[in-house]
Specification:
With 68 residues, this protein is of the alpha+beta class. Helices cover 18% and strands 29% of the residues. The chain contains one helix and five strands, in the order E-E-E-E-E-H.
């Protein structure tokens, strides 16, 4: 199963746009795509947002449980 994980904006230095991670499965058994909206998973820090341990855990949990 391929996956797309939407990340919050202002996460990377010099880039204010939201980004996403594409996870491609080479040997997949099904033609499904999992979309995970993690755009609200961040902690506000000065000019940039950050992902802390709690945010990482929530994203990984959604990925492992194939939750949308």
């Amino acid at each position: 199963m391929d996956s797309v994980i939407q990340l919050p904006e202002n996460l990377f230095f010099g880039t204010s746009i939201a980004t996403c991670i594409l996870v491609l499965a080479k040997n997949k058994a099904e033609n499904k795509i999992l979309f995970i909206d993690a755009s609200k998973e961040f902690k506000k820090e000065t000019n940039n947002n950050i992902l802390d341990e709690i945010n990482f855990e929530a994203i990984v949990k959604a990925f492992r449980e194939k939750a949308i």
